[in-house]
Amino acid sequence: MSTKSFDIKNPRVADGGRHRIEWAEQEMPVLRLIRERFAKERPLAGLRISACLHVTTETANLMHTLQLGGADVVLCASNPLSTQDDVAASLVTHYEIPVYAIKGEDNKTYYDHIRAGLDHQPHLTMDDGADLVSTIHKERTELIDGILGGTEETTTGVIRLRAMAADGALKFPVLAVNDAATKHFFDNRYGTGQSTLDGIVRATNILLAGKTFVVCGYGWCGRGLASRARGMGANVIVTEIDPLPALEALMDGFRVMPLTEAARVGDIFCTVTGDINVLDKQHFEVMKDGAILANSGHFNVEINIPVLDGMAKEKRKVREFVDQYTLNDGRRLNLLGEGRLINLAAAEGHPASVMDMSFANQALGAEYMARHAAELEDKVYTIPQDIDREIARLKLKAMGTEIDTLTPEQEKYLTSWEEGT
Ligand code: ADE
Are 62 and 366 in contact (CB under 8 A)? Predict the structure, then answer.
């Protein structure tokens, strides 16, 4: 039941979008291989897919892959600020894929676009943050019977879905793409690491060398961000609530301290925790004049913006993605990208080479769901190991790197327990 309507900003910018989509494709060799096979085997034939993802050049390549696999696809934005309007235009114009996404859309339009995506009556859902699945379960329960299953891209989405499953609320199976090693070891770490700095630098044009850069959270994204910020010459402080990653950060050579202490000395703060109000009143109260605040976690809840608003006597936009808040004592705090994920708001998200693996997992995950959903319970499943390993093998091959294989003697040794000292 494909609705062939769409809602995008400007169809006239489609050609530029197509060039950029093709540019990204060059860096997505694994997805290209999957696409070639999908075009021959059509594993998704007859299936309607509603995808709620960041509308980027990389996502466009995924949508095209699903389409060549036989799926009838529609796409809506998974964040109000991450849409690349030229990509949305090209998908509609050149690929005949309905898109509902406009960069800078307000919250109402954002959810209207999700509802439009669901009017497609999907057999499969593809989410980045679980907004599609949660809207189905809250507002569109009549769709559930027709849904085979879904896939979920990100840590925050997987956490939400596992909470739903634990409550017995989840009514169809979902594959956690984020659980794949070829996703979170690379996308979350190297992708977020690089693209977050890219977003901060594009928004501000500041020099990172010599600055004190505070990374809140040392999950895979925080690890990547801290290592890349250090690589650019910043003096990095990590804050954590979990003793294990805190210890890891310390032994990785970073300073670790409570955020209330880091707040006094940081020049740049970036949250990557997945939790709410990480940067809050007590931190704003002691920050230095000129401090820069950014978030690279999925939702715009990590910086307490309403409190910052309440503390400010003036707020003005000083650059495209920079809102400057002047507090009563004259200190100025600079909030980037309205506290939304800065790598997608002010830059282009993760580079294509790393999205190649994430979206290979999405494409193979959709194929797996098409084949196996009937055997699955209403739970969150990890991507099967053989898919994960195959993606790593293909990526290595595409990067021109060969590795060794075990000799029969070594294989035997690994499966025996008799041999000791
Ligand atoms: N998430 C982070 N970076 C992305 C990108 N380039 N495309 C789609 N989703 C993303």
Answer: no
214 and 157 in a common domain: no
Q: Is 59 in the pocket of ligand 1 (CB under 6 A)?
A: yes
Find, among 346, 77, 108, 13, the residue nearest to 206 by Cα. Answer: 346
C-alpha dihedral, 232 to 237 to 242 to 244, nearest 10°? 60
User: How close is the Cα of 195 to the center of ligand 1, in Å?
Assistant: 9
Question: For the segment 329-339, what is each residue's pLDDT rounded down to a tens digit?
Answer: 999 999 999 99
Domain ranges, residue 226: 191-345
Atom of ligand 1 nearest to the CA of 341: 2
Closest atom of ligand 1 relative to the 350 alpha carbon: 3
Same domain, 128 and 207: no
Query: Exposed, middle or buried by CB within 10 Å (0-12, 13-18, 19+), for 328?
Result: exposed
pLDDT bracket for residue 421 (50, 70, 90): confident
Residue 195, domain member (yes or no) = yes
E strand or H helix that includes residue 192: helix 192-204
* Single-letter amino acid, residue 137: H
312 lies in the same domain as 368: no
CA of 80 to the centre of ligand 1 (A): 14
Closest CA to 213 of 159, 293, 276: 293
- The model's pTM is 0.95
Q: Are 215 and 333 in the same domain? A: yes
Is the pLDDT at 387 greater than 50? The verdict is: yes
pLDDT tens digit string along 262-288? 999 999 999 999 999 999 999 999 999
Report, as an integer, the average pLDDT of 195-223. Answer: 98
